Amino acid sequence: MDTDLKKIAEKLGIAVDFSDAGLRHQNYTVSGEIVKFFAKAMGYDADTSDKASASLSKLENRRWQRTLEAIYVCNIHNLIIDVVAPDLSSIVLTAQDEKGNKIDLSYQYLGNCEQYGNLYKESLRITTELEIGYYDLRVVIGGKTYTSVLAVAPDRCYNILEDKKIWGYALQLYSVKSKRNWGVGDFTDLKNFVKMCAQSGADIIGLNPLNVLSHNYPENASPYSSISREFLNPIYIDIEAVPEFDSKDKEPLEGLLQELRTSEFIEYTKVYPLKVKMLEKCFAVFQKNKNSKRYKEFLEFCDRYGASLDNLAAFQAIYDEQTHKVWGGWRAWPKEYLSPSSPQVAKFVKQNQDKVDFFKFMQFEAWRQFSQAVAEVENCGLKVGFYRDLAVGVGRDSAEYWSNPDLFIPDAGAGAPPDALFPGGQKWNLGAFIPEVLKEQGYKPFRNILRANMQNAGALRMDHVMSLMRLYVIPDAFDSGTYIYYNFEDMLNIVALESCLNKCIIVGESIGNVPPGFIESIEAKGFHALSILWTERKDMGWGAFNQPSQYPYNAFTSVGTHDIAPLKMWWFGYDIELNYAMGMFKSEEERAIAYHKREQDRSYLLAALDEAGVWPEDKPRSGNYVYGEQYPEGIEEAVMRFMSRSNCPVFLAQLEDMLHVEKMQNLPGTDHNQHPNWRRKLPVDLEDLAQDVAYIRCVAAIRKER
To answer: Cα-flanking dihedrals φ and ψ of residue 251, to 5°?
Structure first.
């Protein structure tokens, strides 16, 4: 790789080498062709030496082409901007806050002036004290006014958990089984679960991502592959709670609803279209009352979400029409529909206004019902309330991508580098932001996503939080990719700012290939860590389990996650057999090694529980069972006490562990045709949960320690 190409890669944040997350940390050198692909995708052609030289010159001179950056993201104690102009001797700075108040800004030169031709660049430190928030920055030089955005960020993220030890539940909302829902958990179930939490002493409910998924392909049910991370999934709407619902419409459906409630798995192709059909009837009634208070609230909702909601609804309406004509998602649409700002899209919206408004109506009703669940959190006094989950990316066949295609790296998708489980890496097929374009847009798309997911939450889990620094991206035409680096300091500051503005605790999921120093950086910014039982072990996860006193002080902890076998499944090794059946072991020998290791792991777990003295008094351990010949009575209670005793401020109990579930919610590396991912229901109806003996005993075990 020649020198110019390496310099281009450095300036664009394209890694030319990296190491994987395996135990041996294998190093990889990125090919010149992959670097050229990403450079060209970002607008800097490097296919030949002459083109590379021209692109490098363009990169080196780009800051001199404008007076101000599009945005300055600054720490509250270090407000520094830089200015480019022919004459910097007289500068006037003003700012306007989000309430419209004008502020005259004082400043001092930092004395680091640079010259390029007849232009000068100087850094200025703003000395006027400003509160955290976003400001419209105005700079007057030589009678000309230039504008930018000034983001003033706090030192740390919002936090109310100092010296507190609370607990709650990790809940996959879709999996909630109840006697009243329509075959999938809904916002009324969530509201009722909030009341149960208050009764049991829980203060937090961890939720899977609630974002809107594909309208036309309901079987694409992964909550981590949304079409927009700003909006909610209408499948969670309780139809019977919609004000316009007519109970007579339910009478012919009783048999079907009973079938949907009692089915082993969620029947997405039956549940979602049925809900949409009922919502269409509700919408027809809704439209007849345009002078009502509710319709006024709908218009206010549409105005509040503006272009984002307009684009989502237009995308869904066009997609619904085009999916019957073309195959291949929105990129296969007629070219006049490929941009939300095209005259043809505007014409389509006008001609199909009712259909577009229906999609907005579904978002409005979902928001209304979720807001009621949030209000129940406040009524019940839960200390944190909803702990939402923000997916690392968005599906490429999505409204978010279609609405702003210049923001995403074309013909490529985010994934994971090679590791022990996936030697070829993973292709998640998620869109990845172009760092330079994201900053040019004032980080607004990122800010909007954060705000949408924080507003109705007391805490936010950021999936694959390393993406604030770097994201592994794979071109469609290649089998491997490389890391794309972002402005880490800016990204951290924006998260901290939104966290404080929305009073939302931040948790970073950092399982995977973690760069050196990354954990220390996010901890210093006030991010909470995630910690699970299966990784809190000695000898890099192969040795004895750590005792509760050895857990990290700032972590949200749980036994496992939705991607990991529940406790009982793990104990019997059913996950090993499942992985073998799915071809994830290359040989019988690998399976045998896994079983042998599990025997040792059972011994380690029993020893840790014994040392902690957490077995139920009426169910002391009576055997070893290290060969998985029996499930130790009371082990789930012992594990709950063990985890609740940790130093961590938050413990999240999984209902699957409490209720002895032996199947996984999601098996990474498979789709729903291979394994019923995102479809498995809880075994106990919500109405019966508080009377379930296993549940009662586990809650009692937790409350002994918290």
So the answer is: -55, -45
